[in-house]
Automatic annotation (TrEMBL):
Leader sequence residues: none
Membrane-spanning intervals of the chain: none
Protein species of origin: Brassica carinata (Ethiopian mustard)
Biased composition regions of type Basic and acidic residues, renumbered to the chain: 41-51
Region (Disordered): 1-51
Family note: Belongs to the SRR1 family.
SRR1-like domain sequence ranges: 91-259
Protein name: SRR1-like domain-containing protein
Length: 276
């Protein structure tokens, strides 16, 4: 992903391409699928020790972000959407007979350096506080420092020490919270779960799959990075997030909830030509 420092110092998907209602319209950046090189491996942050002063500052920033989000029109609208039957029925379907969805968060970014990751994390934490069907939150991003990880733990999250490359198998109902990740991570997640029973146990928050489909090109690396995203479109229900105000646009633009219901394993497209 590129960091668009010229605009606001925040992570952004790519540089603005068009204007839409006066706001930035962005295009998801893809990253070539590198199945051979993407091993799951233990992860160590670059910093070795927690810095107590930085820790206190990051904690304060997070508390401020949670308060700001909680009292925003954006959050009210976000909750209203989750409570609408068309969306809540999807979550109920993912839950099945289980009481809780565990949350796995990939690609949150640096909560010390940027506001968007703080707003995104705030939403996840507020969801857990609001709904008893949201279980533990596990987090992984290779950019997280030991200090940031300690703040995440103090907020009740578990920081993973293995880079799963987003290939977690949904053996139980799981909410994957993957705000503004690169296409290859969504692709990896789908590939690891390319079976009806697993796909139906997934609720995914991330870049709009519809947008990937609209913007796909014939470049081989784009096709490789998005092929399962595109192949899943036929059995994906997608609900777009409303950013509501400019304050929340950088953190939530072009994001959607996604639910998968392929019906039968035999309806899943066979994707055998990995070398495409
Ligand atoms: C474009 S940034 C998005 C950051 C933040 N969510 C935002 O919207 O500003 C993509 C993030 O994915 C993270 N990432 C890359 N590979 C990852 C992996 N294997 N597992 C989890 N996160 C990963 C990067 O470190 C980066 O923070």
């Amino acid at each position: 992903m590129v960091k668009n420092a010229s605009i606001d110092g925040e992570w952004t998907v790519v540089l603005p391409s068009k204007r839409r209602h006066g706001k930035r319209k962005t295009k998801p950046k893809v990253h070539e699928e590198e199945e051979e090189e993407e091993e799951e491996k233990p992860w160590k942050s670059d910093d070795l020790e927690i810095d107590p002063q930085r820790q206190a500052r990051v904690k304060q920033k997070m508390e401020n972000a949670i308060k700001k989000v909680e009292s925003s029109k954006f959050y009210t609208t976000f909750l209203e959407q989750l409570k609408r039957p068309e969306v809540s029925d999807q979550f109920r379907h993912v839950l099945g007979a289980e009481a809780q969805l565990q949350m796995v968060m990939y690609g949150i970014g640096s909560i010390e350096s940027y506001e968007s990751p703080r707003f995104q994390l705030s939403i996840a934490i507020l969801m857990k506080r609001e709904f008893d069907w949201v279980g533990n939150i596990e987090v992984f991003d290779p950019v997280l420092s030991v200090t940031e990880s300690s703040v995440l733990e103090s907020l009740g999250c578990t920081v993973l020490s293995v880079n799963e490359q987003a290939r977690r198998e949904a053996l139980k109902p799981t909410l994957f919270f993957m705000p503004h990740c690169e296409a290859n991570l969504y692709n990896n997640l789908l590939q690891a779960n390319w079976r009806m029973d697993r796909l139906s146990r997934i609720a995914l928050f991330g870049n709009s799959f519809q947008m990937y489909e609209e913007q796909v090109t014939l470049e081989p690396q784009v096709i490789r990075a998005t092929k399962r995203i595109i192949a899943s479109r036929g059995f994906t229900s997608e609900f777009a997030i409303e950013t509501v105000s400019d304050d929340y646009f950088p953190a939530f633009h072009d994001s959607s909830w996604h639910f998968f219901s392929p019906g039968l394993d035999s309806e899943l497209p066979l994707l055998v030509s990995e070398g495409l």
